[in-house]
Write a structure and sequence with these properties.
The chain has 246 residues and is an alpha/beta fold. Helices cover 36% and strands 24% of the residues. It has 9 helices and 13 strands. It has helices at 12-16, 25-36, 49-59, 88-101, 138-149, 173-184, 201-206, 218-223, 235-244, and strands at 7-10, 40-44, 65-67, 72-76, 79-83, 104-109, 112-115, 128-134, 154-157, 163-168, 191-195, 209-212, 226-227. The strands form 2 sheets. An 8-stranded mixed beta sheet has the order 5-4-3-2-1-11-12-13, with helices on both faces. It has a 5-stranded antiparallel beta sheet with strand order 7-6-8-10-9, covered by helices on one side.
Length: 246
């Protein structure tokens, strides 16, 4: 089989993973066919290393990865290329905002993932590269987005309407894939990307072909060049067959 794009960057949740949070047999088959045709697969997810590791290593064996919305970039499961840390003060501010508004704080650092009840703000050290706040009230989430979005040193995105995801300024899935492509010697126009959430929008707009999942929201679909089937109907497999291989 010949290929139209040299790199395939794939989101996990709501994209490569089905409604049960698994990679279907059909999707595995077409991922393997793409790899056999010489396509470099990139796992591009909002998950940090602890939550992405098992799926990344089984569905994308030996492949590069963009984790934590671009805050971690891996050449393969054993080789970290880059990690971009947040300012300690910004992490403290997020922690305080979560406590003040009754939200749930969570964060990734070099030792793993912590949630609000595991962390005392005054004991916060360094090494944090992605943080988030979950809140059950959508209006509160919108207000938090307005507040945090005004901060100088952070980037704000989301993969869920009741959550904020925060990383260092300028960090995104797109910046992560761009960094890997420089390392691989592949221009972004030779990349196909598939995703379903707001944290995928910049990436879909920045590659040769951006494909939104059928289950994606309207803003994501508008940002994409094409729309595939939903994650319940093996949309990634369908996109590989229709847009990548021939």
């Amino acid at each position: 089989m010949a290929v139209r794009y040299r790199v395939l960057a794939l989101d996990l949740d709501g994209t490569t993973l089905n409604a049960q949070g698994r990679v279907s047999r059909k999707t595995r088959y077409w991922l393997r066919k793409a790899a056999e045709a010489g396509v470099t697969l990139i796992c591009a997810t909002g998950r940090g290393y602890p939550r992405a590791k098992e799926i990344w290593e089984t569905a994308f064996p030996g492949s590069p990865a963009v984790l934590a919305n671009g805050a971690e970039i891996w050449l393969n499961p054993e080789t970290l290329l880059e990690r971009y840390y947040m300012e300690r003060e910004d992490v403290l501010r997020l922690h305080r905002l979560a406590e003040e508004t009754g939200g749930s704080f969570w964060a990734y650092n070099t030792t793993g993932m912590v949630r609000g009840h595991q962390l005392k703000g005054e004991d916060l050290g360094d090494g944090w590269y992605k943080c988030g706040i979950y809140h059950a009230d959508r209006a509160t989430v919108e207000e938090l987005w307005r507040i945090v979005g005004s901060w100088e040193n952070v980037s704000v995105t989301t993969s869920h309407p009741l959550m904020l995801e925060v990383a260092a300024k300028g960090i995104s899935k797109r910046s992560g894939v761009e960094r890997l492509c420089r390392e691989l010697g592949v221009p972004m126009k030779e990349v196909m990307a598939v995703g379903d959430s707001l944290n995928d929008v910049e990436l879909l707009q920045g590659v040769g072909l951006g494909v939104a999942m059928g289950n994606a929201g309207s803003e994501v679909k508008k940002a994409a060049d094409r729309v595939t089937r939903s994650h319940r109907a093996n949309g990634v497999a369908w996109a590989i067959r229709k847009y990548l291989l021939y």
